[in-house]
Amino acid sequence: MRAAPSGTADLPLHGGRVPAWLSARMARLGRVIVEAIAHDYGRTEVLRRLANPFWFQSFGAVMGMNWHSSGITTSVIGALKRGLGPVAGELGLHVCGGRGRASRRTPEELAAVGERVGLDAPALVRASRLVAKVDSAAVQDGFELYLHGFIVADDGAWVVVQQGMNGARRQARRYHWIWDRAGGFVDDPHAAIEGRPGGDIVNLVDHRAAPARGELVGLGHAGPAAAVDALTRLRMPAHHDVRAEDIDLRRLGKTLAAVADRGPEDFAELMLVPGVGARTLFALALVAEVVHGAPSRFADPARFSLAHGGKDGHPFPVPLRVYDQTIAVLKRAVARAKLGESDRLAALRRLDEQARRIDAAAVTPADFERAVAAEWAAKEQLGGRTVSDDAEGSIDATPPARPRRWTRAPLTAQLSLLSLGPGRPATGPASGQRSQPGAKARRT
């Protein structure tokens, strides 16, 4: 079994927790997105997406996590483990491991999967241990591993996502491995190792350290192998808020134009989901890109936080009504596709294709700021919530078994993000500053 890392991501440490009202929704949305990808492209493509650090970050952002923080890793792996567990037999995808104590249960979980579906369990356990050893011991870069997620398919293909912490630098580093990359576990397994200088790095899997490995003496203090173009590297900024410079504003303009062009045709009449309006269509357009988008389109993960906000209010509160409508539309589309009726999933694909073809002007930074301010102003209408609101009990902490039948939100709330762009009146406050009382206190 041969493998190599497919990429790394450097992320600022970000404390806090994922509240129950969000974690349950993340599990449901994560499951239905994975089901849609597997239906259209196969389960191997799900693994390839998870092995891409840019896609992984965008996936977490579209589910309502802070767009750039280290917490996305733990939350996404946990959401997938909870969400895919009940359908693992049907999908043929199994999520093992996790954070801390859960990571130490990876071998027994892999053994159980192997016995259940007929895989070579000892080989999977060996792969799990070797991947962890390489990134924690053979490559000593100052990051101590604390999370190990192993996702394996029924045919033996697998992906490992693990994360280490450097407390002194207040950074986390995420490592992505995929089973079919060239190289071995202990002889140049990395496509490259690249990062800011931080002192000597011990790299015992460099090919130049073969004598040391063979004789178990003379730790190789030579630098890592020269970086190559194939490296996939995501490095996130320290600021928590979402800024216009963090987003490809031209690509955002394409998404908005695609919603205006395809939305009424493909969703208002085709899907006929009560309460779905322009705001939900915008969220669905970003979800469509997560399902169908090429790797080059995930260079700005912050853009995907505009679908469902962030739990800490960056860029705005999580609009629970929009979130639940997104899940409802996707669940119905996937359920129909399983019955051979793929019209609704095809509508999602057409929305994504339109965003690629359309020639739209870039959104301006001022437009972006006005739209974010409008989302804050529409917080109550959209069921907006952050972790700061939990003590207030404005919405049940535990979501219902089925999404609520929300009534259609007022037009100002529905169009808060879709009012971007030249010649379109901005909804909400004219200023780019958030006028919501207490908004400054939430920006921690």
Give your account of this protein's structure:
With 444 residues, the chain is an alpha+beta fold. The chain has 17 helices and 10 strands. The protein is globular, with a radius of gyration of 22 Å.
Largest sheet: 6 strands, mixed
Order of strands in the sheet with most strands = 2-4-5-6-1-8
Count the E strands.
10
Number of helices: 17
Q: Helices and strands, in N-to-C order?
A: EHHHHHEHHHEEEEEHEHHHEHHHEHH
How much helix is in the residues?
Answer: 40-55%
Radius of gyration: 22 Å
Mean pLDDT: 74
Instruction: Find the structural class using helix and strand composition.
Output: alpha+beta
Distance between the termini: 45 Å
Uncertain regions spanning at least 5 consecutive residues: 190-197, 211-231, 266-271, 394-415, 421-444
- Overall, the morphology is globular
Strand content: 5-15%
Keywords:
six-stranded mixed β-sheet; 12% strand; disordered C terminus; 444 residues; alpha+beta; 43% helix; 17 helices; single chain; two-stranded antiparallel ribbon
Map the helices and strands.
Layout: E1 4-12, H1 20-41, H2 43-50, H3 53-62, H4 71-84, H5 88-91, E2 93-99, H6 101-104, H7 106-117, H8 121-138, E3 139-140, E4 144-153, E5 158-166, E6 171-178, E7 202-203, H9 210-215, E8 233-235, H10 249-268, H11 278-292, H12 305-308, E9 318-319, H13 320-338, H14 343-357, H15 365-377, E10 384-385, H16 411-414, H17 439-442
Parallel strand pairs: 1-8
Antiparallel strand pairs: 1-6, 2-4, 3-7, 4-5, 5-6, 9-10
Summarize the entry for a quick read.
This protein has 17 helices and ten strands. The chain is α+β, with helices and mostly antiparallel strands and 444 residues long.
